Amino acid sequence: MEKRYYDDAGALVSVTCGISNGDKWMTVRQKTPKAGTHRIKSPKLPVRGTRAEAQQDLDAYAIIKKWDEVD
Fold first, then answer.
1. What are phi and psi of 56, to 5 degrees?
2. Residue 14 in contact with residue 4, Cβ under 8 Å?
3. Angle 48-15-71 (CA atoms, 0-180°, nearest 5)?
4. What is the reported pTM?
5. Beta bridge partners of 17
6. What are residue 62's DSSP bridge partners?
């Protein structure tokens, strides 16, 4: 399973596939469990071609931001 994090506001942050044929992966945040997701737009979290690339970006960003990993 891929790593997910809580941001400073307590929203869940994870990597997901965009609306495409599986070739666009992005970092999104979700305020509450039933809420929709919204892409985090940052130069450090670009849309990537693979889940692994997007996850690597998120993991590095989470370290910088000192976000807590979801158990």
1. -60, -45
2. yes
3. 150
4. 0.91
5. 25
6. none
pLDDT bin (cut points 50, 70, 90) of residue 19 is confident
- Choose among 58, 54, 65: nearest CA to 18: 54
Phi then psi for residue 40, to 5 deg, are -90, 115
Q: Is 9 exposed, middle or buried (0-12, 13-18, 19+ CB in 10 A)?
A: exposed
Structure tokens at 14: 């994870």
C-alpha pair distances (Å), 63 with each of 17, 60, 66? 22, 5, 5
Q: What is the DSSP string of 26-67?
A: EEEEESSTTSPPEE---TTS--BSSHHHHHHHHHHHHHHHTP
pLDDT value, residue 48:
95
